[in-house]
Write a structure and sequence with these properties.
Catalyzes the conversion of dethiobiotin (DTB) to biotin by the insertion of a sulfur atom into dethiobiotin via a radical-based mechanism. This protein is α/β, with parallel strands linked by helices. It is 40% helix and 12% strand. Strands 1, 2, 3, 4, 5, 6, 7, 8, 9 and 10 form a ten-stranded parallel β-sheet that branches.
Length: 386
Amino acid sequence: MTTAFDQLADRILSGGAATAEDAVAVLRAPDTELMSVVAAAGRLRREHFGNTVKVNYLVNLKSGLCPENCNYCSQALGSQAPVLKYSWLSKDETLEQAGAGLRGGATRVCMVSSGRGPSDRDIDKVVEMTSALKDAHEGVEVCACLGLLKGGQAERLKAAGVDAYNHNINTAESHHENIVQTHTYEDRVDTIGKAKDAGLSPCSGLIAGLGETDEQLVEALFALKALDADSIPVNFLMPFDGTPYENTWELSPTRCVKILAMARFVCPDKEIRIAGGREMHLRSLQATALQVANSIFLGDYLTSEGQDALADLEMLRDNGFVILGMDESGFAELIEEHRAKAAARATGGCGSSCGDGCGSACGGHDEQERPVIRRRGAGTDVAANA
């Protein structure tokens, strides 16, 4: 039986485009039609990306201590969340953390720092890190996420070899003032424009679960389409204790899948990345979500733990996906390497890659409890989850 979602996919594959009304209809589809939505959106995903998944790895260069008041953020001004707080990693520390992710299967390293925006000395640091990273790892992609850019900074990053710049719009323009007051929506759009003008690939996405309406989610996606973002990270709110959004639970696994499918219909040929909150909100539907999305972060996030890296890789393999840029034999070898490391650690803990006790994929954490604060990787002496 041909569904309305099949007809929408047919139209897009024939050169048409989804309308705002189409996007709202996807979000409001009954849960009984979820697999029809996934099957139709999955046709667009396979047309442009086959069965590949792009694997990205986050390195938090500078954590906490941010002067901006983004109400959803555990690092923001006024946040009481007990996250790691540290100043800039050194070049060698950055190489160590990035190398862990690249050995774990990632092809893009996302270097992130908290703060309103970088100083010229901060740009100097990232330039040096990028040069060292490119020298050490042939073919690695580097994405910088440093906040609001000033004139000339994007050009310096591009000249140093940075490939992409991430700056999320986070929500619809009509909702922006409700979630942050220390900078404007226009400030964010301006930075994306600076990155594009310098030749950096624009990476910009959103956070779902911030009290926005269906129409505002659609507004945000169409804004990202108009900005021509090459990569669109879709985050699901992680309601950290100590932030204004603590105890905010608006999302279900099926809702999250529909949001990702809506993004695929609106931006059929763009990288749709399942980002923060993936494990907490999608839960058993993570693999289903990858039938419409084509990109994930491996391991942990900026201030919270993700599921064990081996679990990420096995999920991809078990559901017929391959890592972009890696052949099947290389993928199989990578999984065996992770399994061997897990076995070697088994006598000292639960076998997760956290390196110090129980990882969030081992069954020792309730999926509905608060975000697990990251205590490993960058800024610690504990091995990274990669």
